[in-house]
Write a structure and sequence with these properties.
alpha/beta; Spore Coat Polysaccharide Biosynthesis Protein SpsA, Chain A; UDP N-Acetylglucosamine Acyltransferase, domain 1; 2 domains; 7-stranded mixed β-sheet; 6-stranded parallel β-sheet; 8 helices; 29 strands; elongated; ATP-binding; transferase; ADP_Glu_pyroP_CS
Length: 381
């Protein structure tokens, strides 16, 4: 059965700027907000936008991501004629195995896309925090009779050199594109969210590779090709909350913003829920001596210390006389007695011994990696 629009989530990034946090898992699988993983936002946006057929393209350390997504049931993607499919690199006749870029990853999965027979393909990144109605973007794409629509938002001019930058006419048609320019001509930045007419994109990718002009990246190759060919390329302007959590500082900042229940992301919105796969844990327990203020506490936590403006994920143990402030603690961590943690991110299943200090600043966030052990005499849970 054909689908009108197929979702493709690019989830193979290594995320090297997240340091120890992505040593064993892909960036989209990194925990976020106490009970989510980063990819949950793209998957939930698809579900809420009635994009019920989704391919997740993985590459780097995919095990945790595969286990998290499963059959897609947590996002309602396991129904009749709907589903989520994990797409991993494979050895082709030409000897290629790994994806060499964003559009090359799509090219390698042409057979899967053809099997879904979509009119449109929605390309998403799996490592951004935001809510977006892709149905509304599709309606804009149709109204412009576009071959390609690029979702964009205004960014501070001093940050524009980090993005693909668009120059448009008064109708929103893209007339010039700059990929991470040293001297940007505007502050209208690509969000890495695209809607393509599939027949046209398929033609561009196949012809490019057959003629020895590989289309490896959307920003560096495909979009410039569309503009040179005179295709209808338009923008879709987005003005909501959007965060690229590709650095330690931005990941910490976004988690701390998550504590503000009045933030634009509005995590409590019952009409646009963010879904996730969660383990069943016991209720959290806070001792009489503990103090918790302005914090999110996950199930299964044991708290005997002081928690201030922080997020504790599931099954975190905090010992007596310990202080956690302005920090994000991922699931399964054991934190001993008389520990001080400020402006830090502590990875999953890390163990912090007694009398340890991990103190950063807003501009220098300290990181403890996945399963890392710091100090001795660590409390066993």
């Amino acid at each position: 059965m054909s689908v009108e629009m197929l979702g493709l989530i690019l989830a193979g990034g290594q995320g090297s700027r997240l340091k120890q946090l992505t040593k064993d898992i892909a960036k989209p699988a990194v925990p976020f907000g106490g009970r989510y993983r980063i990819i949950d936002f793209a998957l939930s946006n698809c579900t809420n936008s009635n994009v019920k057929n989704v391919g997740v393209i993985t590459q780097y350390q995919p095990l945790a991501l595969n286990e998290h997504i499963g059959n897609g049931a947590s996002w309602g993607l396991d129904g009749i004629n709907t589903g989520v499919t994990i797409l991993q690199p494979y050895s082709a006749q030409d000897g290629s195995k790994f994806f060499e870029g964003t559009s090359h990853a799509v090219y390698q999965n042409i057979d899967y896309i053809d099997s879904q027979d979509p009119d449109y393909v929605l390309i998403l990144s799996g490592d951004h925090i935001y809510k977006m109605d892709y149905e509304e973007m599709l309606e804009t794409h149709k109204a412009h009779n576009a071959d390609l629509t690029v979702s964009v938002m205004e960014v501070p001019m001093e940050d524009a050199s980090r993005f693909g930058i668009m120059a448009t006419d008064e109708n929103g048609r893209i007339i010039e594109f700059q990929e991470k320019p040293e001297e940007p001509k505007s502050n209208l930045a690509s969000m890495g969210i695209y809607i393509f007419n599939w027949k046209r994109l398929r033609e561009v990718l196949v012809n490019g590779y057959e003629k020895g002009n590989p289309m490896e990246d959307f920003g560096g190759d495909v979009i410039p090709h569309y503009l040179e060919a005179g295709d209808n390329v338009f923008t879709y302007r987005f003005d909501g909350y959007w965060k690229d959590v590709g650095t330690i500082k931005s990941l910490h900042e976004s988690n701390m913003e998550f504590l503000d229940l009045d933030m634009p992301l509005n995590i409590k919105d019952r009409y646009w829920k963010i879904y996730s796969r969660n383990d069943i844990s016991t209720p959290h327990f806070i001792t009489a001596e503990a103090h918790v203020n302005d914090a999110m506490i996950g199930d299964g936590c044991y708290i005997a210390g002081k928690i201030q403006h922080s997020i504790l994920s599931q099954n975190v143990h905090v010992g007596e006389q310990s202080l956690i402030e302005d920090s994000f603690i991922m699931s399964g961590c054991s934190i001993g007695d008389n520990v001080t943690i400020k402006y830090a991110i502590v990875g999953e299943n890390a163990r912090i011994g007694n009398n340890v200090e991990i103190i950063g600043t807003p501009d220098d966030i300290k990181v403890v990696g996945h399963k890392e052990i710091v100090g001795e005499n660590n409390n066993e849970q």
